Amino acid sequence: MSINKFQKSLKMKTLFGLLALGALGGIAAFGTVAVVMHKTSSTEFCVSCHSMEKPLAEYQGTIHYQNKHGVRAECADCHIPTDTIDYLFTKVRAAKDIYHELAGTIDTDEAYEARRQHMAETVWQQMKANDSATCRNCHDFNAMTLLEQRPTARDMHQQAIANNQTCIDCHKGIAHLLPDTSGSAQSGAAKLAKAALSASETATQLFTYETTQFFLGEADSHNQGNLLPTTEIEVTTRGTERIQGVVHGWQQDGVDSVIYGQQGKRILSALLGDDAKAAVEKLATVTDEATGIVWHQVNLKLWVETNKLLDNDKALWDYSSELMSANCTGCHGLTPLDHFNSNQWIGVIKGMESRTSLTPEQSRILTQYVQKHASDMTGSKH
């Protein structure tokens, strides 16, 4: 009997001993993981790789590294969310960085620049998805005294609050240089061209996706002018390679070489040659009470190559929005589309395009985008 008691006591002691060892092992393992997580989140660790020399130099030249307040945002402050799940997910995802360091994916300036846009867009997407969580650790709309901000900043933040925007919508290029987005823009234009090839054959409304020649006859070889990007055409006849349609618009009295999309708004729809001027049909005449300018409501029947047209404008606006985000946030926040009226936007784009990588064609489509979503356009929100 005493032997049985001894055996039971020994088993219990062994069990408790194993449990204690397991608990101590678990604590040690958890502590080790916590230390590793902490150490690998330090700026010293982040910049210890050769490939991080370039982003480190960029970061050291920004206000987030050195400022009059003596407050520094470390790598983890911007790149690692504090929420437990997001924190762990970010650390696991960062394992790919070890692979790319060993593989030498960005070990030269040329390789780094080739990957800069991809890396930047990946981070932007992540920050967009988590509502710029790391930014909000320091910056919060609820903690801002908007009246003490500069007028431009105050206006932009009020717009951001009203439109439920997040920090990264406007504040790109804060700690690292912005990528050259011209390649992405070209890719976007190629997608529009591809979409035009599959446009519906039964669509009654079509849209130009680039500056497009038009003809007065189906078989004409000489064009009679150009349609601007995003111009809407009402389809009347479909030929083999061209469609006939009608462009509706307005002409200012005495200015017969241009058709505008709206009365009193300088939204270009078509630039006309001599024969096209003569082919314009005037429907009505009105006088603008505010300016005294006489306007004619007009139609123009024309022919356009089918593969130059889209069957909806959503792809156009998505592409234009990407152009604006990529080119118009390096020096300031993303200006709300309804911040200016359609005529004011012309001067804004003209004044800024020389500071961007926009091509003339991209500038034209961006101008159309902001004008057609301006403050004086019905349903301008986008």
UniProtKB/TrEMBL annotation:
<dbReference type="InterPro" id="IPR051174">
    <property type="entry name" value="Cytochrome_c-type_ET"/>
</dbReference>
<dbReference type="Pfam" id="PF03264">
    <property type="entry name" value="Cytochrom_NNT"/>
</dbReference>
<feature type="binding site" description="axial binding residue">
    <location>
        <position position="139"/>
    </location>
    <ligand>
        <name>heme 3</name>
    </ligand>
</feature>
<keyword id="KW-0479">Metal-binding</keyword>
<dbReference type="InterPro" id="IPR009154">
    <property type="entry name" value="Membr-bd_4haem_cyt_TorC"/>
</dbReference>
<feature type="binding site" description="covalent">
    <location>
        <position position="331"/>
    </location>
    <ligand>
        <name>heme 5</name>
    </ligand>
</feature>
<feature type="binding site" description="covalent">
    <location>
        <position position="138"/>
    </location>
    <ligand>
        <name>heme 3</name>
    </ligand>
</feature>
<protein>
    <recommendedName>
        <fullName>Cytochrome c-type protein</fullName>
    </recommendedName>
</protein>
<keyword id="KW-0812">Transmembrane</keyword>
<dbReference type="GO" id="GO:0009276">
    <property type="term" value="C:Gram-negative-bacterium-type cell wall"/>
</dbReference>
<feature type="binding site" description="axial binding residue">
    <location>
        <position position="50"/>
    </location>
    <ligand>
        <name>heme 1</name>
    </ligand>
</feature>
<keyword id="KW-0249">Electron transport</keyword>
<keyword id="KW-0472">Membrane</keyword>
<dbReference type="GO" id="GO:0005886">
    <property type="term" value="C:plasma membrane"/>
</dbReference>
<feature type="binding site" description="covalent">
    <location>
        <position position="78"/>
    </location>
    <ligand>
        <name>heme 2</name>
    </ligand>
</feature>
<feature type="binding site" description="axial binding residue">
    <location>
        <position position="332"/>
    </location>
    <ligand>
        <name>heme 5</name>
    </ligand>
</feature>
<keyword id="KW-0997">Cell inner membrane</keyword>
<feature type="binding site" description="covalent">
    <location>
        <position position="75"/>
    </location>
    <ligand>
        <name>heme 2</name>
    </ligand>
</feature>
<keyword id="KW-1133">Transmembrane helix</keyword>
<dbReference type="GO" id="GO:0009061">
    <property type="term" value="P:anaerobic respiration"/>
</dbReference>
<feature type="binding site" description="covalent">
    <location>
        <position position="46"/>
    </location>
    <ligand>
        <name>heme 1</name>
    </ligand>
</feature>
<feature type="binding site" description="covalent">
    <location>
        <position position="167"/>
    </location>
    <ligand>
        <name>heme 4</name>
    </ligand>
</feature>
<feature type="binding site" description="covalent">
    <location>
        <position position="49"/>
    </location>
    <ligand>
        <name>heme 1</name>
    </ligand>
</feature>
<dbReference type="GO" id="GO:0009055">
    <property type="term" value="F:electron transfer activity"/>
</dbReference>
<dbReference type="InterPro" id="IPR005126">
    <property type="entry name" value="NapC/NirT_cyt_c_N"/>
</dbReference>
<keyword id="KW-0813">Transport</keyword>
<comment type="similarity">
    <text>Belongs to the TorC/TorY family.</text>
</comment>
<dbReference type="InterPro" id="IPR036280">
    <property type="entry name" value="Multihaem_cyt_sf"/>
</dbReference>
<feature type="domain" description="NapC/NirT cytochrome c N-terminal">
    <location>
        <begin position="13"/>
        <end position="180"/>
    </location>
</feature>
<keyword id="KW-0349">Heme</keyword>
<feature type="binding site" description="axial binding residue">
    <location>
        <position position="79"/>
    </location>
    <ligand>
        <name>heme 2</name>
    </ligand>
</feature>
<dbReference type="InterPro" id="IPR038266">
    <property type="entry name" value="NapC/NirT_cytc_sf"/>
</dbReference>
<dbReference type="GO" id="GO:0005506">
    <property type="term" value="F:iron ion binding"/>
</dbReference>
<feature type="binding site" description="covalent">
    <location>
        <position position="135"/>
    </location>
    <ligand>
        <name>heme 3</name>
    </ligand>
</feature>
<keyword id="KW-0408">Iron</keyword>
<dbReference type="GO" id="GO:0020037">
    <property type="term" value="F:heme binding"/>
</dbReference>
<feature type="binding site" description="covalent">
    <location>
        <position position="170"/>
    </location>
    <ligand>
        <name>heme 4</name>
    </ligand>
</feature>
<feature type="binding site" description="covalent">
    <location>
        <position position="328"/>
    </location>
    <ligand>
        <name>heme 5</name>
    </ligand>
</feature>
<keyword id="KW-1003">Cell membrane</keyword>
<feature type="binding site" description="axial binding residue">
    <location>
        <position position="171"/>
    </location>
    <ligand>
        <name>heme 4</name>
    </ligand>
</feature>
